Target: Aspartyl/glutamyl-tRNA(Asn/Gln) amidotransferase subunit C
Amino acid sequence: MNEKLDITALAKLARLEVSSEELARLEKEIPSILEFVRTIQTVDVSGVQEDKGLRNVMRADENPHETELYTKKLLDAAPAREGDRIAVKQVISRKK
Model:
């Protein structure tokens, strides 16, 4: 694979903010990821049959607890709260 990827354009399309350090790292990593995808696409799956027995494996919620049964206990255990909500540190910045 000799094609040059425009990581800045990809990040813009994905609406991601990417630092110059991340750009440098991604320029090295993305070609090997794409090569791995190409390798997977060449795998012969002609002898593999689709499993028709797939089903939802989540259990039914047959015995739900009473509404707000644990709310006070959970809020009391939280390190910080705002009213009836747990307060957490903002991890995503929003640019306008």
Q: What stands out?
A: The CA atoms of residues 27 and 80 lie 41 Å apart. The chain has a mean pLDDT of 85. The radius of gyration is 24 Å. The beta strands are 81-82, 85-86.
